[in-house]
Specification:
152 residues, Thiol Ester Dehydrase, Chain A, 3 helices, HotDog_dom_sf, YiiD C-terminal domain-containing protein, YiiD_C
Length: 152
Amino acid sequence: MSRPDIAEFRRWLLGQIPLLGHMGLGEFDFDGRQLEIPARLAPNVNDKGTGFGGSQATLATICGWSLITLLLHERGLDCDLVIADSQLEYRAPVDGDFSARCELPDTETVAAFLKKVRERGRAALALGIDIRQGDRVAMRMQGRYVAIIRSP
């Protein structure tokens, strides 16, 4: 199976979710297991001059959603993907450009997720997503995403 064209995916995503076009997102960095999405501070600033918590939550949510969507497409699975729940831990203020970064869990967990999607038509996968400013983790999100096979 071929790896998706990340620039094409980015263009598609920005067309699907208008809010993302206003967040100052940079080029996505995807290596097949990890995805990083950068954002500029300026369009995501709050009244204190730091990164708006809602923007950080949005970026973390879409980073996890995008990583799993890329995985599903790569494996030829046509699914709707939703976030079922999440927990956010804000650790430090963001006072400059930042990024969301997430990585797929171990191969056994991913294989079990894909098998369950194929066999039962739906499955959940938990991801940890970090909002980073440089090497510092400013926010950590734990999210549970649910993939549901689309009916023909």
